[in-house]
Amino acid sequence: MSDPKAYRALTTHRLFWPVVVLVGMLAANTVYRPGFLSVQMRDGHLYGSLVDILRLSAPLILVALGMTLVIATGGIDLSVGSLCAISGAIACLYISRQPDQNSVGGVLTALALGLGVALVLGAWNGVLVAVIGIQPIIATLILMVAGRGLAQLITEGQILTINSGPYKAIGVGHLLTLPLAIFLALAAALLVAAVTRRTALGLIIESVGGNAQASRLAGIRSGRITFLVYVISAACAAVAGFMMTANVSSADGNAAGLWVELDAILAVVIGGTSLAGGRFSLGGTILGALLIQTLTTTVYAMNISPQTSLLFKAVVVIAVCLIQAPGFRARFTRRRAPAAGPTPVSEQPKEQVPA
Amino acid sequence: MKRMRTYPPSRKVIAVLAAALLATGVAACGNSDTGGSGGDDGTITLGFSQVGAESGWRTANTTSIKEAATEAGIDLKFDDAQQKQENQIKAIRNFIQQKVDVIAFSPVVESGWDTVLKEAKDAKIPVILTDRSVDSADKSLYKTFLGSDFVKEGRLAGEWLVQKEQSATGPVNIVELQGTTGSAPANDRKKGFAEAIAANPNLKIVASQSGDFTRAGGKQVMEQFLKANPKIDVLFAHNDDMGLGALEAITAAGKVPGKDITIITVDAVKDGMQALADGKFNFIAECSPLLGPQLMDLVKKVHAGESVPARIETQETTFTQEQAKEALPNRKY
Q1: What is the pLDDT of residue B11?
Q2: Which of A170, A281, B22, B253 could connect to A246 by a Cys-Cys bridge, CB 3.0–4.6 Å?
Q3: Domain boundaries, position A82
Q4: Is A156 in CB contact (< 8 Å) with chain B?
Q5: Residue A348 counted as domain residue
Q6: Does the beta-carbon distance from B16 to A128 stay under 8 Å?
Q7: Which of B306, B312, B310 is nearest to B293 (CA)?
Q8: What is the membrane topology noted in the UniProt record heading this document (chain A) (predicted)?
Q9: What is the CATH number for A78?
């Protein structure tokens, strides 16, 4: 690198290391199996592992987008996995009761129903946190546990199989040779970005996350913003739930969206959003979600044994988090090149999680 | 610590939490039948504690037990533990207090049963385990264990494949979709299958991954298997659902399931049997939830003081495509 300043600007960018790890994983896959990156045309659409990664990461991107906004206000939403299961179960139940499962009108009604219930449940979360003042982790824990039961109640403990072309398209359909799901996720991302970054909303959310009291005294309706992010998070989870159930044309109240809340929180953290609130990065979140899905796909593509795959994932995630931490990097740079100057540690003053 | 001040733990918080806890507590107890004690009028009273209702398999299991009890004239006190061991222990203690004649249950987990089983033994109430076992060292704590032999299921699947491929000259590439890592059915089915296919050195497992017993898991893993292995001849899935998920991946890859790739699964739930009858699967080793009639026979024998074997296998069979077509109309689950 000829210009050391530009080099430092690049390597200290908070998304530099996640990108390096992502590229590194793709490279490792290519070394293991040279055809990994190849993409072919099949039945009029693209086919290959990269396309799989895009399609499978779409639901996680959606859930993580909502989670980013919640975390930006200093909260957390543990109920998203259960919300995925509930919305998917409601949509599938409605479609399964239709005489013609392929009718577009019926599918749209099913989506509206699923989304509607999710919005109500999101509003419940919002009321618990913003109005009653329960800590977010506890407030959303209620729905995380109870919601799983609710989803099973809807499907009556069975796996509900449907046979609906239009609904299936949400999960496995194609648009312009690419999976439809990734376009839906992208559209949601652009919408959230436009609403938060082209208006003052993003700044207001960050301000509430920074200090809710001070924001309120400065004239921001903190409660209303907090309420809003939980509703948005629920809406994102609902659409993700549609994708998950459409992907396999069946609603499994027990397994749909299981542990996705943890993956979403991880994606948000890898993307550089502080868990303490007050700052968020939508692009980082999307990158984090892609990284997590690539990691999962790598395990299957390289046929890493199931007994060691969890350890493998943990090692990669710990590595990403460590090299991302300025404090950790500073130790290394100082030891190797003491003349490099102080790393801007003050960049992330609120990185620690409140007890 | 600044953040804490935003959400002070007020009295309201505690009240809401208490209400939520109370609600779950009530729901958990709601299913237990508390009335009456049995044994006085000659009819046998059976206290049964079920794991929960986590799958179609489990629901069919519950229905089978309830129907068989009615048919056998046994007074059944049914409890749903909702996947929680503490609920199940509570239910068993209730059964002991009510002085039922026989207690049967499907343990949620393997360990931690010694104390409550000792209480039942002291009360001279015989205990029968169904579907899942416990790891108690003292085998006298229960009379018998009625359930499927997962190793045998894997072996039956493997033996069918050995039979089918006996004339194969070249290598036959097998991919395996395992159940949840570490679970007994996953470990045992894998073991039984591997033992059986060892009979023919041409049969080789080229890839094996966990699909967590779910359709989404099976599909996601199969997608990568198909890309990483140009020649896959056989898929062995540890349950129907993973096989059903894999079907979609195989179709998307432009292959014909059941023809280009031979598919063998375990369980025989309705959707799986349908796929078998449609020619998309090739063979299913049954893991039957319909153990109600066998259980009621055992209850009568144990109550009469007859000795029973310590391990009893569920009556199970296997299905080929033709057998599935015949059996499908009468399938209960």
Answers
A1: 57
A2: A170
A3: 45-331
A4: yes
A5: no
A6: yes
A7: B312
A8: Multi-pass membrane protein
A9: 1.10.3470
Residues of chain A positioned with their CB less than 8 A from the CB of B271:
159, 161, 250
Residue A275 inside a domain? The answer is yes
What is the spatial distance between Cα B23 and Cα B85, in angstroms, rounded to a whole number?
19
Query: pLDDT tens digit string along B270-309?
Result: 889 999 999 999 999 999 888 899 999 999 999 998 989 9
Q: Token digits for A93?
A: 């139940």
| Cα distances (Å, whole numbers) of residue A331 to A99, A347, B1, B6 | 66, 16, 26, 34
Nearest CA in chain A to B245: A248
> Which regions of chain B carry the CATH code 3.40.50.2300?
36-148+289-315, 150-287
Query: From B178, which residue of chain A is nearest by alpha-carbon distance?
Result: A306
CATH number of B150-287: 3.40.50.2300
Min Cα distance A5 → chain B (Å) is 36
Instruction: Please judge whether A303 and B209 are an interchain contact, meaning their C-beta atoms are less than 8 angstroms apart.
Output: yes
Query: pTM (2 decimals)?
Result: 0.81
Tell me the per-residue pLDDT of A80-95, one tens digit each, with 9 for 90 and over.
999 999 999 999 999 9
- Give the CATH architecture of domain B36-148+289-315: 3-Layer(aba) Sandwich (3.40)
B252 to A172: CB separation less than 8 angstroms, yes or no: yes
Residue A31 domain-assigned (yes or no):
no
Residue A175 confidence (pLDDT) above 80: yes
pLDDT at res. B134: 85
**Hey, is the C-beta of B245 within 8 angstroms of any chain A C-beta?**
yes
Residue B71 has pLDDT above 50, yes or no: yes
Question: Residue B120 — φ and ψ, nearest 5°?
Answer: -65, -40
Residue A69 domain-assigned? yes
The string of pLDDT tens digits covering residues B147-169 is 889 999 999 999 999 999 988 88
